[in-house]
Amino acid sequence: MPDDDPEPPGPTRQRNIYMQGLADVTPDLPVRYEDLEATALDALDDGAAGYVAGGAGGEETMDANREAFTEWRIVPRMLRDVEDRDLSVEVLGQEFAAPVLLAPIGVLSIVHEDAEIAVAEAAADLDLPMCLSTVSSFRLEQVAETLSHEDGRGWFQLYWSSDRAVTESLVERAEDAGFEALVVTLDTPLLSWRERDIEEAYLPFLDGEGLANYFADPAFLDRLDVDPAENELAAIREFVDVFGDPSLTWDDLELLVGETDLPVVVKGILHPDDAAEAVDRGADGVIVSNHGGRQVDRAVPALEMLPEVVDRIGEDASVLFDSGIRRGSDAIVALALGADAVMLGRPYVYGLALDGADGVRAVGQNFLADLDLTLGLAGQSSIEGLDRSVLRER
Ligand SMILES: Cc1cc2nc3c(=O)[nH]c(=O)nc-3n(C[C@H](O)[C@H](O)[C@H](O)COP(=O)(O)O)c2cc1C
């Protein structure tokens, strides 16, 4: 990852820069999201497919996340010189070439053996920052090394352990490895009721997947009598004990913010009062998200809450959005509603499942090409210039 300030990204000149790489795109990777999802799910075993595609309870929230986008329509404007388009944005004072990050997704080894290393390579090629999950299949140091080798950028997502020493150690390791922000996920102090996983009796962590960061962590290892290599089951049990902490409060967030030099972004915010509290307690940004409908069934769609959160804290902090972003037009809606950037989740996992790093690259390229074209055809020449006047509510 770059030590110095990165070169500010320039405008997209004359043509869609992301189209240039299309020749490299895997020809048989489906372009339509619906086909991509169906093909990837077909290729995965039932357990992994259910884990990635599934959500909490009856999966009402997952559907509602998509439904919420249908409430907003883009109103294209004409003859406004959209030859040069600028996708760049500033988030947390950091310059991004495009308003897109790859969302933290855990246990990627269940969809492809190259897992987070493949995602890091593709993210760097695409010039999109990658947010690495705590429950990754490769150690955070290995992923950071790939990112820096490839000139990529990374944020680290923290699952806040009930063992404070483990939390502190993970944060320190993320800082030392060169991650540029800490994303603290607040909506997962407990794993939710996920019916597909329960029916399949599938939880990848119980097979030791996604635990690379814990099994290499000095504070976690201190809790064990023997190394995980000698007794994996005992180590897995210990992980289950320390994974989350439902007793956390806003006072704890304030302490955590005080303990790190990294900017802190809290993920899983839906209520504007929570967004305001997070900023009062020192967070630099929030991610409006319901974890892709994976935590609370019948939770409000994330998009529905985005305008209220932006109105409340948008002047004081960065606001990011995820949960339901599938195409360029979805991103335009979220950005016009006031998000500074969006996170792409399940779509890139399906690309990874089908073709490793090349698959993630193809999905990212297609997404960025769509975003750039839709921006220009809406009569807009920059992401920073988008506002609610671009939209009409149904
Ligand atoms: C299989 C899977 C694993 C995930 N793992 C994590 C994780 O480790 N940490 C986290 O903060 N969010 C995690 N998320 C949530 C994503 O970061 C993001 O909020 C979600 O995918 C957005 O919904 P969408 O993919 O439907 O757009 C996960 C999501 C999926 C689908």
What does this structure look like?
By secondary structure, the protein is of the alpha/beta class. It has a single domain, classed as Aldolase class I (TIM Barrel, Alpha-Beta Barrel), CATH 3.20.20.70. It has 15 helices and twelve strands. The protein has helices at about 35-45, 45-55, 60-70, 115-125, 140-150, 165-175, 195-200, 210-215, 220, 230-240, 250-260, 270-280, 300-315, 330-335, 345-375, and strands at about 70-75, 90, 95, 100, 130, 155-160, 180-185, 265-270, 285-290, 320, 340-345, 390-394. The strands form three sheets. The chain has an eight-stranded parallel beta sheet. A two-stranded antiparallel sheet has the order 1-12. α13 links the parallel β9 and β10. The longest helix is centred in the last third of the chain and has 32 residues, at about 345-375. It is globular and about 70 Å long. The model has no long low-confidence stretch (mean pLDDT about 95). It binds flavin mononucleotide. The site of flavin mononucleotide has 21 residues, from α2. Flavin mononucleotide binds near residues 267, 294, 322, 324 and 325.
Report the portion of residues in β strands. Answer: 5-15%
Q: Number of helical runs?
A: 15
Largest sheet: 8 strands, parallel
Strand order of the largest sheet: 4-11-10-9-8-7-6-5
Distance between the termini: 43 Å
| General form | globular
Q: Report helical residue fraction.
A: 40-55%
Examine the secondary-structure arrangement and name the CATH architecture: Alpha-Beta Barrel
Instruction: Give me the CATH superfamily.
Output: Aldolase class I
Mean of pLDDT: 94
Instruction: Give a count of the beta strands, DSSP E runs of length 2 or more.
Output: 12
Structural class: alpha/beta
